[in-house]
Amino acid sequence: MNDAILFSSSIDRPSLRDGFLGEAVAGLSRPAKTLPCKFLYDEEGSKLFNEICELEEYYPTRTENQILRDNINEIAGLIGSQCRLVEFGSGSSTKTRHLLTHLPGMSGYIPIDISGPQLLESAVQLAGEFPNLEIKPLEADYGEVSEIPDTKQKPRRTVAFFPGSTIGNFDPVAAIAFMRNIAMLCGRDGGLLIGVDRKKPRWILEPAYNDRKGVTAKFNLGILARANRELGADFDLSAFRHRAPYNETQGRIEMHLVSQRAQIVHLDSQEFSFEEGEYITTEHSYKYTLPGFVGLALRSGFELVRNWEDRNHLFSVLFLRVRDRKPGAKRISAGFDVTPGNASEAW
Ligand code: AVJ
Predict the structure, then answer these.
(1) Atom 2, ligand 1: residue with shortest CA distance
(2) Spatial distance between the Cα atoms of 314 and 287, rounded to a whole number of angstroms
(3) How far is the CA of 25 from the centre of ligand 1 (A)?
(4) Average pLDDT per run of 10 along the chain, which is 347 residues long?
(5) How confident is the model over 101-141, as pLDDT tens digits?
(6) What is the pTM assigned to this prediction?
């Protein structure tokens, strides 16, 4: 019986301070207003995000799933046995389920997610499906993990799993810092199995974030509803519109909430004024060329082992390995330029 996770109190919660108020006030005080995307993913938001993943227009989830399915034996072979698998932003662990079925004799699975209820629910469910697997959920902002829980069985290596192109939420400089941290956490012989959304024409990208059913709009506006509910703000949800243009120069989708009129919003006894047409940026979703991303990985302390992609090159799943740092060896600075402007050149 996998009793380790049956009680929510057993979820590791290292100083998870939500900090929504502080970060919301800071973001709305900037000349170009922002609200950090992690606050889109509360219980309600996570449900809507799962709904987005099923949408006809939203190609990333099904494409990545297909790539994982088509290549599962090779992927499992590269990861190998007795591995400690750490998933960053595990959500409902749907993709992992498939992976876990094919991985031989794991030392343990550590799902990390910011949404406690969802983390617990999926951990309990997985425990039922994999009674012999040690599961140690960690409720945390995956960008701020400083230690990975130990497993009873000593792992041969640690492999991180970061699917869904969630890496696209980070701007390239932050993505490097994040992946360097993963390399450090995984250590020698560590691996990273990561999903990356590729650059493609606007007519494919934009509908994926502007679906006809309006689920993405609801998801985006949800951050305002959450600010009203949890922080006592007074956003008029009908006075903001969802918009998600592809910024080709920066190589990213930008989710905006556009103020439909001049208005004042109250939060934390402060006033935030909006001009008509002024917007809050809630999320960036960077898209990469293959060489662009491999360059980023090199700068982060990883080398490419294998790339799998669909035949339309919509999406890539990469297996990266922590680069050995030979004593005295000079750090290689990758020949790829990842500054946003240049990284967006079509390769
Ligand atoms: C979770 C960041 C991968 O960028 O495609 C989907 C988030 N936002 N639709 C993405 C998202 C709106 C998603 N990631």
Answers:
(1) 166
(2) 10
(3) 23
(4) 45 57 96 96 90 98 97 96 93 84 92 86 93 93 90 96 96 97 96 98 98 98 97 97 98 98 97 98 98 98 98 98 78 52 40
(5) 999 789 999 999 877 888 899 899 999 999 999 999 999 88
(6) 0.89
Ligand 1 center to residue 285 CA distance, Å? 6
Question: What is the position in ligand 1's atom list of the atom closest to the CA of 40?
Answer: 8
Give yes or no for residue 295 CB within 6 A of ligand 1.
no
Ligand 1 binding pocket includes 169 (Cβ within 6 Å): yes
**Two structure tokens written together for 87:** 């998933």
Which atom of ligand 1 is least distant from the CA of 208? 9
Q: CB of 282 closer than 6 A to ligand 1? A: no
Tokens of 341: 């402007």
